[in-house]
Amino acid sequence: MQGNIASAEGALAAGCTFFAGYPITPSTEVAEHMASRMPKIKGACYIQMEDEIASMAAIIGAAWTGARSMTATSGPGFSLMMENIGYAFMTETPCVLVNIQRGGPSTGQPTMAAQGDMMQVRFGSHGDYSVIALCPSSVQECFDLTAKAFNLADRFRTPVFLMADEVIGHMREKIEIPDRVEIIRPKPLADGALPFAPGPDGVPGFAPFGSGRHIHVTGLTHDERGYPDTTNPSRHESLVRRLVSKIEDARHEIADYTIVNEDAAYVFVCYGAPVRTVREVVERQKVPGTGYLQLRIVWPFPENLLSRFPNVRAFIVPEMNLGMMAREIGRHVRTPVIPVSRLGGDLHTPEELVQAIRTAGGI
Amino acid sequence: MREDWLREDRLPHIYCAGCGNGTIMNCVLEAVERIGWEKNETVFLSGIGCSSRAPGYILTDSLHTTHGRAIAFATGVKMANPSLHVIVFTGDGDLAAIGGNHFIHACRRNIDITVVCMNNHIYGMTGGQGSPTTPIGKTSTTTPYGAKESPFDLVDLAIAAGANYVARWTSFHVKQLTDAVLTGLLTPGFSLIEVRCQCPTSYGRRNKYREPVDYMTYLKTHAILKEKWERTAGPRDELPSDSFLVGEFVRRNRPVMGVSDET
After folding, report:
1. pLDDT tens-digit readout, A320-339
2. pLDDT at residue B1, rounded to an integer
3. Nearest CB neighbour to A57, from listed B56, B69, B80
4. What is the mean pLDDT of residues A234-256?
5. Residue A341, strand partner residues
6. Most buried among A101, A240, A244, A305, by the most CB within 10 A?
7. B207 CB within 8 Å of a chain A CB
8. Does position B2 have pLDDT exceeding 80, yes or no?
9. DSSP H/E element including A161
10. All domains of chain B, ordered by start, with CATH?
11. Residue A67's pLDDT is what?
C-alpha cells in the first residue's frame, strides 16, 4: 500500500466522515482515495473545494457538526491554509491536516521530498500558538499516526498535523491494518458549563452544532461564553496562554518516540524519511558508538528526551531542510548539535551520515 | 420578531445609529419564524465586517469566521449535517472581494444555503474604504476623488454562476425583503438575497446621505421593480442613473447539493 493511501485508510479507520481538499502534488492520492471510498460509507462526505483556503474552512465547519474531518495538501496549499489554521486553533476546533511535504519555497519541486514546512507548521499563522505535529517514517506509520491524529485533535480540541513527505507518501510497503483502532472523542460539554470554560487539562467540553447549546464561535478574542471581548488585555493574555499551554504542558505525556542505544556517544535525532537512513547506519551497519532518537510527535517538542543519552558527545540531525529541528534541539542542550542538511529531494546516503560522525570526532 | 431568538446578554450591539443591518436581521428572523424553524436546527454563519457581527446577536449555534470565507465554512457545516438550516450573513466586501471565489463556486455547486448580503457599498467596519460594489464616482476613504472601477452586480454574478434563487431588495422594502428571504430559505439550493442598505457613518457621510432617512428615501425612489421595468421599458432603454432593479430575478431548479434526505 502507498503511504498516501495508508493515511486515508487510517483516517477512515478512525471514523473520519468528512474530507475537503484540492488537488496538489504530491498529496493528491489522499483525496483521490477518499473520493473513491467515502461515497460508499453511510453519512460520509467527500467534497473538492475551489482552493485550499476553502478546504480548511470546510473541514472546520464540518468539525462543528461533530464530524471527524480532514484535508490533505502540500506546501503551496499549506501556505493558503494558514489563515484558517489560526482560526481552528483560536476556536478550539478539532480537525486533521495531512501535509505531504515537497521542495519549496514557492512552487519549488512538486514531485520531490522535503521537510521544509516544519517551522511553518509551528509558526506559520499569525499570533502566538502551538501545534501537535506527527511525522511518519513508514507506510505503517502513515496509517497509525493519521488515526492517532484524530484522537489528539479531539482530546485537545485543536488542529493536528500529519507532516509526512513525498518519499513516505509515495512509498509502497506492506502494512498491518488492525481490526479496529482506538477512538477517543472529545469530552462532552457538561450541563450548565460554558462552552469555552476549560477543564483541569485546559480543554473545554464540546457540544456540536444542533445539540441545543446555541454556541457562538468566533476567531475574535472571546470570553468563556464564546462572546467577543477584544479590548481587555487580561482576557486576551489568559486565552492565548491557555490555548498554548494545553498543548505545551502535555508534551512529555503525549511524546511518541523510539530510542535505540541510550548509551551512544553519537546520537541521531530524526523524524520522517531520514529515519530510514539512520536505521541503516545504527541498526544494520551497527556503526560503533551510534544510537538514535526517532520522533513521531515532533511538535510540541519533547525536549526531555534529549537527556536520556548520558554519554552523548554530539546530536546529529539529518533533515531534508537547512536545519529546522536542529535549531530547536540546539535551544535545549549544551552538547554540540550537528545538522546534516539535504535539499533537492534525495534521501541522505548512509555514507553521508557516517561521514558526519567522523567529522564530529567519532569512529 | 421573536425576541427569544436574540442573545440579550450581548446587547447593546455595535451597530451605529441609523445602520440598516438591524432591519435586515429583523426581516431574516421574521422569515425564519414564519417557516417555523427551531433554534436547535438553524445555524448562522458570517465572515468579517459589520454584517458579520449579526450571528453573534442571534441565539442559535453560530460561526463567526474569517474574512470572505463564511460560505466555505457553511459548505462544511451543510455537507456534514444536511439536516441543519444554514444561513450566511455577509457584506459587499466580504462576499464580492475577498470571498468572491467561494461565492461563485457555492452558486455553481448550488449548495443548499441562504446568503443574505448587506450591501452598503463600503467597508464600514474599517472606516469607509471603497468596495467592489462602490458605484463609479462615489467617495470613500480610498476613492477620495470618486470610485473609478466598475462595480460588481451581485445579482448578475449569482445568476451567471448558477444559484437557484436570486433576489434584490433594500432595507426600505421590509415586507418584500422578508418574503424574499422566506422564499430563499425554502428554495432547495443556493439562494442569494442582496439587500441594499444605508451606512450613514461611512458611506452616507461622504456621499450626501448624511441622515439615514436621506438614504432610505434614495432607496425608495431609485429602486425600480424588475417586473415593472420589463413591462414598460423598451429593448434599448437603460436604467436611469443611480437607479437599480429590485425583485425576484431567478427561481429555478438546477441540481443541488447538501439537501437533507428527510425533506
Report:
1. 999 999 999 999 999 999 99
2. 57
3. B69
4. 98
5. A319
6. A101
7. no
8. no
9. strand A159-165
10. 3-233+242-251 (3.40.50.970)
11. 98
Minimum Cα–Cα distance from A212: chain B residue: B40
Compare CB distances from B72 to A58, A64, A218 and report the shortest one's residue: A58
| A residues 104-163 closer than 8 Å to B (CB) | none
C-alpha distance from B71 to closest chain A C-alpha (Å): 9
A234 burial via Cβ count (<10 Å: 0-12, 13-18, 19+): exposed
CB contact under 8 A, A214 and B39: yes
pLDDT band at B263 (very low <50, low <70, confident <90, very high): very low
Contact B47, B65 (CB under 8 A): yes
Query: How is B182-215 classified by DSSP, letter by letter?
Result: HHHHHSSS-EEEEEE---TTTTGGGTT--SHHHH
H helices of A92-207, in order, are: 118-123, 139-156, 166-170
Which structural domains are found in chain A, ordered by start? 3-170 (3.40.50.970), 259-359 (3.40.50.920)
State mean pLDDT over B41-45: 98
pTM > 0.95: yes
- Strands B129-130, B122-123: pairing kind: antiparallel
CB contact under 8 A, A58 and B76: yes
Contact: A54, B75; criterion CB under 8 Å: yes
Using the Cβ of B97 and the Cβ atoms of chain A, whether some distance falls under 8 Å is answered with no
Q: How far apart are CA A76 and CA A59, in angstroms?
A: 18
> Distances from the Cα of B1 to the Cαs of A257, B5, B41, B133, B178, in angstroms?
58, 8, 18, 30, 11
Mean pLDDT of A249-261: 98
User: What pLDDT is attached to residue A362?
Assistant: 80
Out of A59, A87, A209, the one facing B65 most closely (by C-beta) is A87
Tell whether the model's pLDDT for residue A307 goes beyond 90. Answer: yes
Q: Which of A18, A216, A225 sits opposite B80 (nearest CB)?
A: A18
Half-sphere exposure of A247 (CA within 13 A, CB side): 28
Q: Is B60 on the interface with A (CB under 8 A)?
A: yes
